[in-house]
Amino acid sequence: MQFYRENWFNFGVLFVALTFVMALAANSLDHIQVILIYSFMALLVHQYEEYAAPGGFPSIFNIALSGEKVVPERYPLDTNQVLVTNVYIAYPFYLAAIVFPSLIWLGVAQVIFGTLQVIIHGIVINRRLGTVYNPGLASARRVHATGQLERFR
């Protein structure tokens, strides 16, 4: 369990598997399901950017939003909190929306989560740290732009 706790974000290899699934099954899925699966895939890329390459988001979050200077890599956003928030809270909402596409309100969680990512990464953290980039920003902006384009199709 310790290995998974420290490396869960590397299991984004699921992204590659989903790419093949989407190439083979996209035509047989409901249009909303396709959008929701792509949204989940974008979440996997976003998490990889935050925690693996370049990584370091928990420390940046703790410095920018909590003012933590002593041990920014640990508290309040630490390995356990990141695992619980992403795997045990976000994933079930994303997967439930895919499995039950007729329950539109489940997809709203994805929209809210994505919008908050853009606000937190793109505005709040950059203003507080005086930076133009932080781990997670590139994928958050790309996801938001893709979602906006999908609305108009």
Describe this structure in words.
The chain is built from 7 helices and no strands. It is mostly helical and 153 residues long. Helix 4 crosses helix 6. It starts with a helix and ends with a helix. It is globular, with a radius of gyration of 16 Å.
Helix content: over 70%
Low-pLDDT residue intervals, each spanning 5 or more residues: 148-153
Q: Label the overall shape.
A: globular
Tell me the strand percentage band: under 5%
Give me the number of helical elements. 7
Main sheet properties: none
How far apart, in Å, are the first and last alpha carbons?
A: 43 Å
Order of helices and strands: HHHHHHH
Report Rg: 16 Å
Structural class from helices and strands?
A: mainly alpha
Tell how many strands the DSSP assignment holds: 0
Summarize the structure.
This protein is mainly α and 153 residues long. 73% of the residues lie in helices and 0% in strands.
What would the keywords be for this entry?
153 residues, mainly alpha, disordered C terminus
How do the strands and helices of this protein lay out in sequence?
Blueprint: H1 2-7, H2 14-25, H3 31-51, H4 57-66, H5 79-99, H6 104-129, H7 137-151
Helix pairs in contact: 2-3, 3-5, 3-7, 4-6, 5-6, 6-7
